[in-house]
Design a protein that fits this description.
Helix content: 25-40%
Order of helices and strands: HHHEHHEHEEEEEEHEHEHEEH
Number of helices: 10
Distance between the termini: 46 Å
Structural class: alpha+beta
Radius of gyration: 19 Å
């Protein structure tokens, strides 16, 4: 039987390959746009290539019965009019899988057509943070293994995220980082371009009462309710919490930033009634942050339940922060009755 440690190593190596390919696609964005003439085509190439690479790696190591719930499928690529996009994806995949054929690539993408009605499955967001990718800023490749409704392994590949906190978040790092977490074994950081180097264990320092709080926020502001967030921040101020400038970056990289102590909290307040978060948008980040010492729940304080299909149907919103601060944020949301919105 494959152990969690072995699965985590397999996932790290697969994500590292996807990081490399996504970085190559980013560097060629101008050429891709010239050939395909679609503003979203560079991220489409990266999305499909990343899922193909990871699907191929998982199936090759674990067999054809591996269950992967991915965000993408090959339907768009199979259309006659998608030939230029299909060719670009195949060229990207061949950066790390040289003998890949078109059929190989399409089949590997569709490894991600698995469903969640199993005790254990993988889930993947091949490029989380579309806007960040297109701006050549922060995005993530997010792969997680879920058992009995909870992530037990999570890998976040952050190709543009520097290990150095002083490096600007709006500029790409030449090396990037990968975060690997397995339940009960802590959080480990690796250079994205040298994933076999000895990892560094990440242990977040407890947030002290007198420290200003920096809340992670998306550069893309539509991802959370800004008026509601402003009310939470004002409530925290009234409780004597000093609020620093927000730490702005896209994607699940926010979970890693909170886990390593560069940011203090990540909050997603629903932007509309009935909105349901997707499992691939939070599975890897949840265990990365948890193993790094943060608490991750919904806005009611409930543990996230990944057993209800492709959406977090039993949960509403996200709160990720160290213990004391997490409790203060939940209290603010409840006092303001934002959980009823």
């Amino acid at each position: 039987m494959t152990t969690h440690a072995q699965l985590a190593e397999l996932a790290r190596d697969a994500v590292a390959q996807a990081c490399y390919v996504c970085r190559q696609v980013q560097r060629a964005q101008g050429e891709i746009l010239r050939l395909i003439k679609d503003d979203n085509s560079p991220v489409s190439v990266a999305d499909f290539a990343s899922q193909a690479i990871i699907g191929h790696a998982l199936r090759g190591a674990l067999g054809k019965d591996v269950i992967l719930v991915g965000e993408e499928d090959s339907a768009t690529l199979r259309k006659d009019e998608s030939s230029p996009l299909r060719d670009a994806v195949l060229a990207a995949v061949r950066e790390v899988w040289p003998d890949c054929t078109e059929d190989d690539m399409l089949g590997a993408i569709d490894v991600g057509a698995g469903d969640t009605h199993h005790q254990a499955f993988w889930t993947l967001d091949p490029v989380d943070g579309t806007k960040g990718f297109l701006r050549n800023q922060q995005y993530a490749i997010a792969l997680a293994f879920v058992e009995r409704g909870a992530p037990v392994i999570g890998v976040l590949g952050c190709p543009n995220l520097a290990r150095d906190f002083s490096a600007p978040l709006d500029e790409p790092d030449p090396h990037g980082t990968i975060y690997v977490a397995a339940r009960g074994t802590g959080l480990w950081e690796y250079p994205a371009d040298k994933p076999h180097e000895k990892g560094t264990e990440i242990k977040r320092v407890v947030h002290e009462r007198d420290q200003p709080v920096s809340i992670c926020a998306s550069v893309e502001k539509a991802h959370s309710s800004e008026p509601a967030m402003d009310r939470v921040i004002e409530h925290l101020r009234e409780q004597g919490v000093a609020i620093a400038e927000p730490t702005r970056l896209d994607s699940q990289a926010k979970y890693a930033v909170v886990a390593r102590g560069q940011g203090d909290a990540y909050i997603r307040l629903p932007t509309k009634k009935g909105y349901v978060e997707r499992i691939w948008d939070h599975a890897a980040g949840t265990i990365v942050a948890s193993e790094g010492g943060a608490f991750v729940t919904d806005i009611f304080g409930h543990v996230l339940d990944f057993s209800t299909g492709r959406g977090l149907e039993k949960n509403k919103g996200i709160v990720c922060a160290p213990a004391r601060l997490h409790g203060m944020i939940i209290e603010a949301i409840q006092s303001l009755e934002l959980h009823r919105a």
